[in-house]
Design a protein that fits this description.
330 residues, alpha+beta, Endonuclease - Pi-scei, Chain A, domain 1, 2 domains, twelve-stranded mixed sheet, two-stranded antiparallel sheet, 6 helices, 18 strands, Hedgehog_Hint, Hint_dom_N, Hint_dom_sf, Hint domain-containing protein
Length: 330
Amino acid sequence: MRKFTLTLILAGTIYLGNAQTVNPRPLTMAEYTKAQTFSIGDLDKDTYVKFENVYILDRYEGRKPYFITGSDGLKKRIDLYKLVAKEGMQELGTMVFYTNEKGKIYKTLVPNFTADGKVWEKYFEDIDNINKIETNFILKLSYVLSKEFSFMQYKLLNGGKDMKEESATYGNDICFPGTEVVAMANGGKKLLKDVMPGDEVVTVDPATKQATTVKVKELTTHEPKNYALTKLVLVSAHDELTAYGHNVLLNSKVLQATPNHPMMTKQGNKKIGEVEIGQDVLCFNEQTGKYEPFTVLIKNEHVGGNQKVYNIVADGGSTFMMNGVMVMQK
């Protein structure tokens, strides 16, 4: 299970510092469950709704909805409401109404940072379950939360480790899982584990953003272990505010590697395990056909299960494109 203690302590400090303005109190598990039954009749018009004369849903900061279109061309709508206990007007969390392209509404309640760890565990379990049905639900939710919450609150929410450190294998192996996708010559793609000596792969000059090809000399393979992996979710977003809400075109990339693999970010060279939320990495944007900076939206560290990991040795260049993300050669 996730480790919440440090996150909650730090975040609680943030809320205590702002107690006069946000007046939060811990959300109970019973209240979390009850809130799942709350509905808004008209998301366009209803901005302040009471339930049982005990709770209130108040449109978050009077914000307009987000309309997010992903690379699949499907448009989703996200509306945020503060959940407030009427007695004392105490904030309990943020209610999210997510409407897909078919009109189906998914609800989730983001607890405030004073909530008990078990409530947070239930929240993460619930959004994971929705994500299994509604592809990229967590990605789109995370984008909106990153825009609306303070940076520190969002970073605490998404920057924690998702693993038991004692069960993961760390070491000097600088590699990727075999299921990462390598950009090949002539626009082709290949799973890393299937790359062969003599294959031609794409390398990009970080300064000029010009792509060329180099030949693979060797595919290095490391024995199966339960390796620790760092996972980055990177996004490129075009956000236009209209009279109806935020129209967002969202393109995303996901990359996994052992925590010590070298990366080049706009903020400098780092190991992937040291890359931070909000930093920029060069990626290939299929919508524009160009190599452009994508921003790290989500980062976590987890165990990948017992598996081999791989790395390419090439006869030139300094980078590879892995899952559309520029990574440094070892």
